[in-house]
Amino acid sequence: MINWWNSLYSRSDNAKAYVLLSPALILVILGMAVPLLAVFSVSFTTQASFEIDYTPTFDRYIEFMDTSSRTGNVLTTLLGRSISISFLVAFFTLITTYPVAYYVAFYVKKNKMLWLVLMTLPFWTSYLLRVFAWKLILGHKGVINASLMTVGFIDEPLGFLMYSQTAVVITLAHAWAAFALLPLYVSLEKIDYSLIEASHDLGCTKFETFWRVVWPLSLPGVIGAVLIIFIPTVGDYVTPALVGGTEGRMLSNMIQTYFGRANNFPLGAASAVIMLISVALVTIAVNVVTKRLTQRL
Amino acid sequence: MSENFIDIRNISRHFGTVKAVDDVSFSIKQGEFFSLLGPSGCGKTTLLRLLAGFESANQGEIFIDGVDVTTMPPNLRPTNMVFQNYAIFPHINVKKNIEFGMRKEKLSKQELENRVQEVLSLVKLEGYEERFSNQLSGGQRQRIALARALIKRPKVLLLDEPLGALDKKLRDEMQIELRNLQKAVGITFVFVTHDQSESISMSDRVAVMNEGQIQQISDPHDLYYNPQNIFVSDFIGTTNFLSSSTGSSNGENIMVKIDQIGEFSIKNKLNIPENDNETVVSIRPEAIVLSPSPIDKGDIVMEGTIENSSYYGELTSFYVRVQGAENPLIASSQRFDNNSFEGNKCYLSINFEDINLLKKE
User: Fold this and answer.
1) Taking a C-beta distance cutoff of 8 angstroms, is the pair B267, B352 a contact?
2) What is the dihedral of CA B223, B225, B226, B232, to 10 degrees?
3) CA of B216 vs chain A CAs: smallest distance (Å)
4) Using 50, 70 and 90 to split pLDDT, how confident is the model at A141?
5) Both B29 and B121 in a single domain?
6) Does A261 touch chain B (CB under 8 A)?
7) Which of A151, A217, B191, B239 is most open to solvent, judged by the fewest CB atoms within 10 Å of its CB?
8) How far apart are CA A147 and CA B36, in angstroms?
């Protein structure tokens, strides 16, 4: 038995690979594949008061898509909002972190690592704590409103700051900034500085050089950063639940409700599957476009 | 043809305490193939980057065609550069690379196309328009970099060790091609290299640099046969240095006592003072004539033993020790192999005109 195993192990690279992968493989199967399969199966069932009717049906998906009904209308609107909020978050993170990454990549000469570590330092604290911190800043009696009122710029608190989409976008954009910073930095750092000098030498101003050389060469990092932020924020439910109010609710909050108070596992599961597919489709689309744009890099 | 087409006046560039370029002044003629030669870290690349505008001078001025460009940014200067690594933009094809700097010229589509074809044929890469940088060999990339700079019709083309990354065969080919190209377009070339044979074979004039300063500017022939100091003599080719001291002078000639060899009257080209113990003489290996049998020609004839030899194909270097000498002399010869010297005994002869008297540093 042992001999047989030894000879197999020494001969087959596949056997070696599976042995080395087995801890991770078991974890992925138990922690991801099984629950995903369960969600997928439940999405084809029906909730009958307290019991689940296991007759296979597409009704939950039809319920989700049917925009003429109230439920369908709410769910599709929330899906659209989840995706648009995530893209807004990705966009704002990008325009705030790109200049920082640019600065570190091209202007910092010494201790670049230290700079990067210091910039990710705030992200070592708990995500939840950071969301609460934003509540203190954006809230009705928060730092911004209180100071503006003291100075006398406004008479009553700015309502759009808290419990709104604005609040969700600001909070998420800050929460994910570190994840955008690193891919952007890596793609900018990789750019050969002589390309930038060549562009100046050929008559381009600094601004033209940015648009014609730096930006296109950093596109892989930009797309990477956008996807890294987009994918997890679509499904985020902590931030919208804490700072979103009704206006900032996202589809994930609805899914949470279906699996909780609303007690409609099948519809919740179907919503989760639809969200999964939507994110996958968006990601694939972005990837295809990226390949076209960056195949020469 | 303007004598002071590029005029460099008292230029200095310091990095902290390092004087990369230290109070350098010289001028380059219009249409000249001018080389900056020196060991790595001598400041030649910094000087080129000062001309291109990538470095700003701590002091001094640079004039190109009568215009003060000292503080002008690179995009406004009448210079273009061929970078050491060629710096071909990887995200656009060859044609767009070549057209990159032409947007400001506001040419019609047809004119632009003509200019592109013109430079492509100049560098012999017609038909490569759609290729990308990663589909080109090193030599082709270099030609594209040349084409991209030449299409701008710059007043000065700056080349930063463009042949360094090529293999020897291709390098030799490109040397000739670059030289021919320069003659064809008539643009002033400023060429940076650490390869002395490259600079000698290509340039009209060479500036030898060391430690941020110009050691000598002359044509290649003068550089080789009339070096101004020990550094130049040592850096260009190989040579034999022998300690010496001077005696009395009669104007043109001076009495020189060369250690272990004797006392002779030779030409004093560099006006070395009389009775100076701190001098050396430099004798090129090919100026020493070797023979297996006694020689009667030559100003100095000596006897020696061959200690070692290195065979290079086109010539052989012999390490010959003259009796009582501290170090062996290097003599190179095209004809002889070791076997023609019976018992390694040989005779050497040197002419006075091949002896260069230099000041010790």
Assistant:
1) yes
2) 50
3) 29
4) confident
5) yes
6) no
7) A151
8) 64
In a domain, B254, yes or no: yes
Among B104, B111, B124, B71, residue whose Cα is nearest residue A202: B104
If asked whether residues B13 and B118 sit together in one domain, one would say: yes
Mutate which: A109, A202, A212, vs B, most B CBs within 10 A: A202
Q: So what's the pLDDT on residue A125?
A: 87
CATH number of the domain to which A195 belongs: 1.10.3720.10
User: Measured between CB atoms, does B79 come within 8 Å of chain A?
Assistant: yes
Q: Do residues B309 and B169 share a domain?
A: no
- Is residue A25 in a domain? no
Angle at B300 between CA B335 and CA B227, to 5 degrees: 80
Q: Which of A195, A203, A204 sits opposite B87 (nearest CB)?
A: A195
A198/B83 touch (CB, cutoff 8 Å), yes or no: yes
Taking CB atoms and an 8 Å cutoff, what residues of chain B touch A197? 52, 54, 74, 81, 83, 87
Between positions 127 and 186 of B, the ones with CB within 8 A of A are 132-134, 148-149, 152
Tens digits of pLDDT across chain B (361 residues) = 577 899 999 999 999 899 999 999 999 999 999 999 999 989 999 999 999 999 999 999 999 999 999 999 999 999 999 999 999 999 999 999 999 999 888 899 999 999 999 999 988 899 999 999 999 998 899 999 999 999 999 999 999 999 887 888 888 888 998 999 999 999 999 999 999 989 999 999 999 999 999 999 999 999 999 999 999 999 998 899 988 888 888 878 898 988 878 888 888 888 888 888 889 999 999 898 888 888 878 888 888 888 888 888 788 888 888 877 778 888 888 766 556 666 678 888 899 888 999 988 7
3-state helix, strand, coil in chain B (%, to 5): 30, 35, 35
Q: Is residue B21 part of a domain?
A: yes
Give me the amino acid identity at B288.
I
Q: Is residue B1 part of a domain?
A: no
DSSP per-residue codes, B46-75: HHHHHHHTSS--SEEEEEETTEE-TT--GG
**Residue B208 near residue B236, CB atoms below 8 Å:** yes
CA angle A254-A258-A264, nearest 5°? 145
For B312-357, the pLDDT digits (tens) are: 878 888 888 887 777 888 888 876 655 666 667 888 889 988 899 9
Q: Identify whether B305 is part of a domain.
A: yes
* Domains: count for chain B: 2
Report d(CA B227, CA A279) in Å as an integer.
Answer: 73
| Tokens representing residue B263 in the block | 């006392």
Contact A271, A64 (CB under 8 A): yes
Q: Which domain holds residue B321?
A: 240-359
The ipTM estimated for the assembled molecules is 0.85
Closest CA to B25 of B41, B13, B7, B52: B7
